[in-house]
Specification:
With 301 residues, this protein is of the alpha+beta class. The chain is built from 10 helices and 15 strands. The chain folds into 3 domains: 1-83, Arc Repressor Mutant, subunit A (Orthogonal Bundle), CATH 1.10.10.10; 92-157 and 268-296, Periplasmic binding protein-like II (D-Maltodextrin-Binding Protein, domain 2); 163-256, D-Maltodextrin-Binding Protein, domain 2, CATH 3.40.190. The chain has helices at 2-14, 19-26, 30-44, 60-85, 100-117, 134-137, 169-175, 224-232, 242-250, 280-296; strands spanning 49-51, 56-58, 92-99, 121-128, 141-145, 153-159, 163-167, 191-194, 197-198, 201-206, 209-214, 220-221, 238-241, 255-256, 268-273. It comes from Kushneria avicenniae. Belongs to the LysR transcriptional regulatory family. Keywords: DNA-binding, Transcription, Transcription regulation.
């Protein structure tokens, strides 16, 4: 207990420029603070601070004690919080980021269901064109495609997805069915454009060899849903993620192409801060997302 008390004491001390300010913050006399610091340094066998009448300055050992101590105290708080969460209803804020398309279609409805089951959790859904930096925007969970962009984040797969080349039966009846990726260059391909860049470099893999095709077409948009509707209306071939086209594929309004080739994976991941003890509301929300998406979307073929 003394070690924990000393860690808390030093955290407060290190936040102030002088011993006098620290004493006021701690509600102790100046002599009591000075004596306790001396006792702490004696116990550890190192000097933690250089002090003058006006200023305090950390030594190298003091910097290490401060930083490692902060991490230990945070882990202790997280441990106690996670243990407490197991014995009481979930509560507290939960800030979630997702992109507009996937967020509107699936994340928002699952949040509605989650908050009905756990009314003590206050969820903020932040939708954006592109995934936000969780650490910079003080977010708890990000729903992204692909691996975690930062080593300080932990990722868990929510949904397996990949690119699918497909077109309507009407278009294929008129233009013919491509049997190789290279044949796509002779077809009208409908492109999704984002950030002034055209997604016109389509990738396919067979026997470990990647084949890339530069495609073009008469119609493009920065709105993927519009491009998908054009394809269903018979205007050309699209190359979209499985979750975006699985319903029209199941209904026969679109037909998959080049099925003997693999395409890049576009798995959805939930990312959150690296923590030894993850708050229960974060863990349970990710569980709910995984289960909910499995019920809402067909498995990847």
């Amino acid at each position: 207990m003394k070690a924990i008390s000393d860690l808390h004491f030093f955290q407060v001390l290190a936040r102030h420029e002088s011993m006098t300010q620290a004493a006021q913050a701690l509600g102790l006399s100046l002599s009591a603070v000075s004596k306790r610091l001396s006792q702490l340094e004696k116990r550890l066998g190192v000097q933690l601070m250089r002090r003058t009448t006006r200023r305090l300055a950390l030594t190298g050992e003091g910097e290490q004690y401060l930083q490692r101590g902060a991490s230990l105290l945070q882990e202790l708080d997280e441990l106690e919080s996670s243990l407490g969460d197991q014995h009481r209803a979930l509560s507290g804020p939960l800030r979630v980021n997702a992109t507009f398309g996937f967020g509107r279609a699936h994340v928002a409805p699952l949040i509605e269901q989650f908050t009905c089951e756990h009314p003590g959790v206050e969820v903020l859904l932040d939708l954006s064109d592109y995934p936000r930096d969780l650490l910079a925007h003080d977010l708890d969970i990000g729903i992204i495609v692909g691996p975690a962009p930062d080593s300080r984040l932990r990722a868990r797969r929510l949904l397996a997805s990949r690119r699918i080349a497909c077109a309507s039966p009407d278009y294929l009846a008129r233009a013919g069915r491509p049997v190789t990726p290279e044949a796509l260059a002779r077809h009208n391909c409908l492109l999704v454009r984002e950030r002034d860049a055209g997604f016109d470099d389509w990738r396919f893999i067979k026997d470990g060899q990647e084949r890339r095709v530069r495609v073009s077409g008469t119609m493009s948009s920065n709105d993927g849903e519009s491009v998908t509707r054009w394809a269903m209306a018979g205007h050309g071939i699209i190359y979209r993620s499985w979750w975006q086209v699985q319903q029209p594929l199941a209904l026969g309004r679109l037909v998959p192409l080049l099925s003997d080739f693999e395409t890049p994976r576009m798995d959805f991941m939930a990312v959150h801060r690296q923590q030894r003890f993850v708050p229960e509301r974060i863990a349970r929300f990710i569980d709910a997302m995984t289960e909910g998406l499995a019920e809402r979307l067909l498995p990847l073929p």
